Amino acid sequence: MTRLAVGVDIGGTKVAAAVVTDDGTVVARATSPTPTQELGSGAVEDALVGVITELGAAHSVEAVGIGAAGLVADGRVLYCPHLPLRGEPVAQRVSQRVGLPVVLDNDANAAALGEARFGAAREAAVAVCVNLGTGIGGAVLAQGHLLRGANSLAGEFGHMTISPDGLPCECGRRGCWEQYASGRALERLVPGQRGAEITAAAGSGDVAAVSGLAEVGRWLGLGLANLVAAYDPDLIVVGGGVSDADVLLLDPARAALAQQLFASAWRPPVPVVRAVLGVDAGVVGAAALALGLG
């Protein structure tokens, strides 16, 4: 018998939710704008309850999984630069309101798990997964299992310092990787357009859009070189909305990785591939967590 769960991915601009089967198939979707910082944590909770209730009214779901950006542990979002959540018991509050079990995890962990169970990382021994959205999230998979760290806070790759005196970050520091290799970075390089518009323009040969994606790809590759040196993966999976640019982003990243990687001539090459599940990786992985497939 097919089991169903709602998977939710809280992004910088929208809350995406889907009903997902236990084989990773998306059967229904709902979205809501992500509340701004000024609206507070209650507005985020309301948005979550809204999409879950909408989907649950039409489908017999047994649980809910939520992926949220930032530091997530023990059912709480401890800190997120992009969301008005500080130590909030999101899982408990949402569960009480929707009447279903709720599992909460970091959004990049959820996306990585989706790719491990149903996507590009199914055969990898060690995979580094990087999610490019408003910021950068990340996760490491070893034999299909998430490397969570001592406090379940591993994978905050976006806040690695890549330029010590560089651009200010919403986290309060300077030179974080996500200031150079994220959707927000792309929109800064190609002003006046949103990320999807820039990708479409680049596909049509727009010089500024192609150049912007190449610059983001170069910074992406620089950061990936550090992650390869740290984790020695046999695969890198790049997902999130920015990855829709495909080779216009990934080819510059591959070149920068090969150029910057320590002892690259003595290492096996590490494939850099686009996430198979695309922007669905987060909701699919969150649902898999809810169904106990993590």
Quick one: overall form?
A: globular
Number of strands: 12
CATH class of the largest domain: Alpha Beta
| Secondary-structure class | alpha/beta
Helix content: 25-40%
Number of H- or I-type helical stretches:
8
How far apart lie the N and C ends? 19 Å
Summarize the structure in words.
This protein is α/β, with parallel strands linked by helices. The strands form three sheets. The chain has a five-stranded mixed sheet. A five-stranded mixed sheet has the order 10-9-8-11-12, with helices on both faces. It folds into two domains: 4-110 and 280-290, Nucleotidyltransferase, domain 5, CATH 3.30.420; 123-275, Nucleotidyltransferase, domain 5. Helix 4 (183-189) runs antiparallel to helix 6 and helix 5 (195-203) packs across helix 6. It has eight helices and twelve strands.
Summarize the structure.
By secondary structure, the chain is an alpha/beta fold.
List keywords for this structure.
alpha/beta; 294 residues; 2 domains; Nucleotidyltransferase, domain 5; 5-stranded mixed beta sheet; single chain; 8 helices; globular
